[in-house]
Amino acid sequence: MTDTAPIISYARSAFLSLTALFIFTLTNYQIDSPSVIYSRPEVALLSNEVTQGDMGVIELKGAANGKTPEGEIFGTKLRFFTAAGSYIALTAAGMEETSGTHMMTIHGIEEHALYYPVKVAAKEFDSTILNVKRRMAFPGKKERARIKRENELVASAIEDRLKKIGKAPAWDGPFIMPVTDKITDTFGSWRVMNKKKEYRHNGLDIRAKNGARVVAANSGEVVLTGDFYLTGKTVIVDHGMGVFTTYAHLSRISADIGEKVERGQLVGRAGATGRATGPHLHWGARLEYNFINPESIVTESEAFFKHISDKR
User: Of 102, 121, 140, which marks where a domain is finished?
Assistant: First the structure.
């Protein structure tokens, strides 16, 4: 039903499709001396695989040396925080990440790095055909310069927040849909605009009447608002631990930069500003520099918090 090419260059595409708790049960191993046996910490990935474009939740148990672990996967740093007696980290397989087995590296638990396999499952993405005004599909020199400035503004705001990232998320409960209506275009779909231009959709389009309430998907802090060429009136919220959500094509912005918002709080009204074919909400989500499927944040955070509750 709409457009939305990214207004920023921050790249690639909470919480993974959790149908069952899949646990990598890891065997004991020896180092240095045969007489000294070490038990490797247990890593649980809240599914048996990470799908392209989705987030994953990593649970690390048995790392009781008092030091917060560190790690990397998909070329991105893992940021661990504590929940229900375990270390938790979020990860994301970008929509163009190679399918197959990838290695996750964990540091800070033992003197040497530990390695764990994570499988990335391929996904078949939809295709969408759009028709918009020519000046929106093919911006002129002046408009391209404006888009570049706006991209830099957003990237700078995100980068500043990542430099100040804390040790705990701002959310305390599952994410919710910012509007409750039909999804009209899915995350990661291939878009052909005016029969020529093809690109990837980096968010989720949800049908909404002009002026409909748009609420924050979870608690956090508003890091940027503005009226941009491509996404129109836009609000970006930082939820902590590198998780950001974007609300675009608004007819009205109802939150200020620096404002702390709660889950379900009004942040704007739906509209058709920027490059859009009609009233709707473009809802975007990202983990640091990875665009991720916003729909999975809702379904999988519900499952994640149920898992945490069951442990208590």
Answer: 121
